[in-house]
Amino acid sequence: MTGKIDAILSDDVDCFLFGVRTVLRSVAVKNSSYAEFVDIYSSDILDQAGFSREALIFIALLRGGDYDTGLPGCGLTTAANLRTLGFGDTLKRNLNSTLNHFLDEWREMLRKELSMNFSQKLSSPNKQAALNISNSDKLDCLTTQLWNNHLELQTAARSCEIYFVWGSQARYPQKV
């Protein structure tokens, strides 16, 4: 990121996945003389707690969010515990390699960890979640778009239409 924006005003802290460093969130307070307050969320706190951008993207890929269901059978606790094993860092580091070959190996490592719990980071193996890992083009799209620091609006909009059914090509500029 180039650091040209100080903060984003949003009700959705998913902005951190896209490299935002500070999110301002408006909070309405009932029965108060003040109309509303603003909460400030900083990614520095997340970094200090071990939730880097790579870790957050990895958790979002597994857990899902606004536009994707994630990995069925994989809850937030499992995703957060797996992030400590560096799956997100490995994914980011290898984005510029032969992506399809790398993703096949990465998915297999993730399947093994979920099904066997070699690291003992999970409370128990999660064979169901391991079985749900597919060789999906959606993962390719999400990882590339989330980590691309030179994101082109037309490319992002086209990807959103294909994978998230957001509309038609004629409406791209208004949708993004």
Automatic annotation (TrEMBL):
A GO term for molecular function: 5'-flap endonuclease activity
GO terms, biological process: DNA repair
Parts of the chain that traverse the membrane: none
Domain XPG-I residue range list: 2-66
Entries under InterPro entries matching the protein: 5-3_exonuclease_C_sf, PIN-like_dom_sf, XPG-I_dom, XPG/Rad2
Top-level lineage group: Eukaryota
SUPFAM superfamilies: 5' to 3' exonuclease, C-terminal subdomain, PIN domain-like
Designated name of the protein: XPG-I domain-containing protein
